[in-house]
Design a protein that fits this description.
mainly alpha
């Protein structure tokens, strides 16, 4: 159970890897694996939205290598920013809900931070996107028969 939770907190893996791991390898019931993955995926979001800009500023000052990492992450956020700007709440939710590489809660939180969105505006959209992504991942992984 703990591994599923922690796996969902890891960027890139997030719940896309945590749900199949929890239900398949850890042997959790699918509903429990999905719930634990959603909670683990959401835990870092408030910290990311609130502190990303401050952490980026510190990284820039420390070294050129860290600055290049910050620049790469900012480019990633800029690439996804248009959807969020166009559709606001729903754009951020859709960005998070699509369970593909380069999307998810971490990317959504990064985009929200780069756009200076307040946590009270960003978190509900990201949370809804994570729940939708959990349904999609569960459905794709275990088939539509799970919900019938």
């Amino acid at each position: 159970m703990l591994k599923t939770f922690l796996m969902a907190m890891v960027p890139i893996i997030e719940l896309r890897g945590a749900i199949p791991y929890g239900a398949g390898i850890a042997g959790l019931p699918i509903w429990q694996a999905a719930l634990i993955a959603v909670l683990g995926n959401l835990l870092p979001v408030p910290f990311l939205v609130v502190f990303t800009r401050d952490v980026f500023a510190l990284m820039r000052k420390k070294s050129d290598k860290l600055n290049s990492i910050v620049l790469r992450m900012e480019r990633k956020a800029d690439k996804n920013k248009d959807v969020v700007l166009r559709y606001e709440f729903w754009g951020l939710m859709i960005l998070v809900a699509i369970p593909l590489p380069g999307t998810g809660a971490w990317t959504g939180a990064l985009v929200a931070a780069m756009m200076d969105m307040q946590l009270k505006r960003a978190f509900p959209a990201i949370a809804l996107g994570v729940v939708v992504a959990a349904f999609i991942v569960t459905w794709v992984t275990y088939g539509a028969s799970m919900f019938l």
